[in-house]
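COMPLEX REQUEST
Ligand: iron/sulfur cluster
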Amino acid sequence: MPESVAREVARDRRPPPAAPDSAARYVNLWSEDEAIGAERVRAFVLILRTRGCYWADVKGCSMCGYAKDTLGRSATPAELATQLEHALRAYRGEPYVKIYTSGSFLDDREVDPGSRLALVRAFGGHARRLLFETLPEFATSESLAPLRDAFSGELEVAQGLESTQPDVLRRLINKGSPPSEYFAAAERIRALGIRAKAYLLLKPPYLTEQESIDDVVTSIGEAARRFDAISVNPVHIQNGTVVEWLYRRGRYRPPWLWSLVTVMTEGSRLRGETRLVTFPTAGGLPRGPHNCRKCDRGVLDALEEASLSQRFEPLSALDCGCRADYRALARLEPLGIEA
Ligand code: SF4
Ligand SMILES: [Zn+2]
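STATUS: Structure written out below.
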C-alpha cells in the first residue's frame, strides 16, 4: 500500500474529540447465543469506551475501524467504574461474559490494573466464563495471574492472530507482531490455566477468494494445537480503513459466504479438539460477507448452528443458484476479471 494512502486512511480513522460525558457511557452491550462445551448458553457482550488500541495510532490494521469508538485519551478509573455500573443494570446473570475495549483489555493505557480487577470481580459468582481480548505483548503472567485469581470462573483470552502466515499478517493486514508472538502468548496464557482463543481473518485486502480460503484453512491447521478455540471472522467493511478505501474504488468485495462455508468445512477436519466457530458481523449486508442475498439468511443460520453444535456435516448440503457464479468468480478473479 502506498504511504500516502496509509496516511489518508489513518487521518480518517481518528476519533472525533470525545464529548465531555462520553467517557461515562459504554459503547454498546447486548446478549447473544453462545455455547460452553455442548451446553447452549446466553452471552453478555459489553464494549467499553477506552483509549483504544495503541497500534491503531501507530499504523493500524488494514481492516480495523474500531478507533472510531474510542476516547482518544485514557478513561479514568472513575469513568470505567461508571461504565461498569451502567452495564451491570442490564446484566441478567448470563453464564458467558465478553468484555471488549476496541483494543487490548490488558493494556494499562486502556484499562488500568485496578479497573481490570473490578470488572472481573463484578461478574464473579454469576458468569462461568469471561472473555477479553488483547494484543500478545500485554499477555504476561504479571497481568493475567491476578485476574485469574480474582475470578471464580474460567477466563478466556482472545487474540486477533488473523493469519499464521507472516507475510499475510505483516504486508496485507499490517499487524505489528509476527504469528510467533501470538503463539508464545497463547503458551503463556495456557500455562496459567486460562483458555486461549484466536481470531482468524477471512479475506484481507489483496487476496483473491481462493487465496483467502487457503490462508484461513492453513491457519486453522497451524493454530489448532495452540489454541482452545478459533473464531473465523470474515472481513466487513468498517469506516476509515484501507479495506474501505479499496471498496469505494471497486477493488474489494467482502468475502462470499460460500468461502466461509468451505473454510469451516475444511477447517473442521483440521481442528482436532479445538472449538471452531464463526459469527459473522454484518452477514448478508453489502458491506459484510454475503452471497446473492436470497440464500444469505439460510447460510448464516447454518453457519451459526454449526458453530454452536460443532457439527459441520450439514454445511455440505447447502446450495443455491449463485454458487455457480461464485465458482466462476473463483476461476476468473486471479486474472483480474469480475464474474
Ligand atoms: S485489529 Fe486489533 S491490533 Fe489491529 S488496529 Fe484494530 S484493535 Fe488494533
Ligand atoms: Zn444464493
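REMARKS: Strands lie at 28-36, 39-47, 96-100, 129-133, 154-162, 195-202, 229-234, 275-277. The radius of gyration is 20 Å.
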